[in-house]
């Protein structure tokens, strides 16, 4: 038995600091470490609703469909404010597959046929409850039924990009793509492209 099996955390208190676009709480936690010592920890957590993202791959052209849109946190840390990403969105009460089909259509205009669930991940577990469900789908040009671009009522202003998968991998290396979920899906695709045909 590992000594870490004795470590445990008990939530002592929670206080909401903000509750607008997302809820931010501060917690006090009594953490008993692997040596049996108890510590009072203070943590802040963003309560994010679950989300989904998808890699849209066209094997006949060896391209992926990406989107570019404004992201305030990117701007705040001095990176380009219009970030390149895979299509993604909140579940909004839908199951993950239904949500990602909706988001792919809204953002890119592509109707998604066969969707493959890949994995789920917490992308920032030190500060956020967000769980993202990752998907992939094979598309072709006939699957694009609208221009995409997002929903006007949500003030989305999304640019749709079709990029060769090999070029997208280079864009990661050059720092042009720096979104974690996008990097994860592109690297998954680079390793598994044969299964996407």
Pattern of helices and strands = EEEEEHEEHEEEHH
**Radius of gyration computed on alpha carbons:** 20 Å
Name the overall outline: globular
Number of strands: 10
The low-confidence runs, each spanning 5 or more residues with pLDDT under 50, are: none
End-to-end distance: 45 Å
What integer is the average pLDDT?
91
Query: What is the CATH level 1 assignment of the largest domain?
Result: Alpha Beta
Please estimate the helix content.
10-25%
User: Remind me, CATH topology of the largest domain?
Assistant: Nucleoside Triphosphate Pyrophosphohydrolase
Kindly report the name of the CATH homologous superfamily of the largest domain. Answer: Nucleoside Triphosphate Pyrophosphohydrolase
The number of domains is: 2
The biggest sheet amounts to: 7 strands, mixed
Class of secondary structure makeup: alpha+beta
Explain the overall architecture.
The chain is α+β, with helices and mostly antiparallel strands and 197 residues long. It folds into 2 domains: 3-47, no CATH class; 51-196, Nucleoside Triphosphate Pyrophosphohydrolase, CATH 3.90.79.10. Helices cover 21% and strands 39% of the residues. The chain has helices spanning 72-76, 96-108, 165-174, 180-192; strands at 8-19, 23-32, 38-47, 51-58, 63-70, 82-85, 88-90, 115-122, 131-138, 159-164. The strands form 2 sheets. Strands 4, 5, 6, 7, 8, 9 and 10 form a 7-stranded mixed sheet that branches. It has a 3-stranded antiparallel sheet with strand order 1-2-3, with no helix packed on it. Strand 8 and strand 9 (131-138) form a beta hairpin. Helix 3 (165-174) packs across helix 4. It is globular, with a radius of gyration of 20 Å.
């Amino acid at each position: 038995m590992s000594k870490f099996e004795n470590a445990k955390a008990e939530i002592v208190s929670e206080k909401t600091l903000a509750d607008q676009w997302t809820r931010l709480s501060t917690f006090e936690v009594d953490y008993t470490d692997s040596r049996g010592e108890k510590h009072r920890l203070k943590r802040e957590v963003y309560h994010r609703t679950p989300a989904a993202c998808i890699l849209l791959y066209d094997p006949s052209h060896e391209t992926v469909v990406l989107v570019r849109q404004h992201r305030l946190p990117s701007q705040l840390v001095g990176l380009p404010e219009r970030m390149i990403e895979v299509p993604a969105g909140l579940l909004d009460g839908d199951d993950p597959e239904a949500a990602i089909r909706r988001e792919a259509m809204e953002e890119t205009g592509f109707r998604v046929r066969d969707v493959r669930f890949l994995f789920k991940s917490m992308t920032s577990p030190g500060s956020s409850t967000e769980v993202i469900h990752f998907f992939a789908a094979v598309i072709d040009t006939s699957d694009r039924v609208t221009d995409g671009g997002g929903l006007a009522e949500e003030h989305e202003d999304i640019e749709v990009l079709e990029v060769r998968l090999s070029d997208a991998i280079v864009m990661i290396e050059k720092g042009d793509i720096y979104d974690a979920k996008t990097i994860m899906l592109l690297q998954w695709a680079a390793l598994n492209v044969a299964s996407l045909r």
